[in-house]
Write a structure and sequence with these properties.
The protein contains 1 helix and 13 strands; from the N terminus they run ββαβββββββββββ. By secondary structure, it is mainly β.
Length: 163
C-alpha cells in the first residue's frame, strides 16, 4: 500500500438526493491505510451541497477548500469560504452544526478530514433527526455496527419505564 496519493488519482463516486444535494466523493483514507483519521475529496457542483446540516457529538471534522467558493453554515451563521480556507467542525452540539454550500457558478472542491471514532451521535437540526452508531464510524461499514439507529426523538422516558 502506498502512503501517498495525488488528488488527481482519487476515484470519485457520485451521490445525489433531490434538488439540493449532489457531490462526487472520493475516499482517500482507506487507500493510504489510515486508521484514526478519515480523508475524502468532495466535488460539489454549483448550487448544491454534499450533505445535510449536521453536528457530531463525538467525531471532529476539518475541511480545506481546494478550489472554488461558497458558504459554510456553522450554527446559526453563514460564512463566505474560498480557496485556501480551513474550516473547523469540532464535536459538540447544535452550535457546531455545519454544512458547506456551493453558492458559486463553478465547481467547489474540498478535502474533508475527520476522526474515526467508532461511536458517534449525529444531530440533523434542519430535519430533527438523530443518528446513533456504535461499532464503526460514520461513512464506514454499517454491517460492523453493534447498534445503528437513525430517527427522530420521541417522548422522554423514565429509566424504569417498561421494566
Amino acid at each position: 500500500m502506498r502512503p501517498i496519493i495525488n488528488l488527481d488519482e482519487v476515484v470519485l463516486e457520485r451521490f445525489s438526493h433531490g434538488e439540493r444535494f449532489e457531490t462526487q466523493d472520493g475516499a482517500i483514507g482507506p487507500q493510504l491505510g489510515a486508521r484514526q483519521l478519515g480523508y475524502s475529496l468532495n466535488v460539489v457542483p454549483p448550487g448544491k451541497r454534499a450533505v445535510p446540516f449536521h453536528c457530531h457529538h463525538v467525531n471532529e471534522e476539518m475541511f480545506l477548500v481546494l478550489e472554488g467558493s461558497g458558504v459554510v453554515r456553522i450554527g446559526e451563521r453563514e460564512h463566505a469560504i474560498r480557496k485556501g480556507d480551513v474550516i473547523a467542525a469540532p464535536a459538540g452540539g447544535r452550535a457546531s452544526a455545519h454544512q458547506i454550500i456551493n453558492t458559486s457558478a463553478h465547481e467547489l472542491r474540498y478535502l474533508s478530514v475527520s476522526t474515526m471514532l467508532p461511536t458517534d451521535v449525529i444531530e440533523y437540526p434542519d430535519s430533527g433527526k438523530v443518528a446513533v452508531m456504535v461499532g464503526s464510524p460514520p461513512g464506514e461499514d454499517p454491517a460492523a455496527r453493534t447498534y445503528n439507529h437513525r430517527g427522530r426523538p420521541g417522548p422522554a422516558l423514565d429509566y424504569w419505564d417498561g421494566e
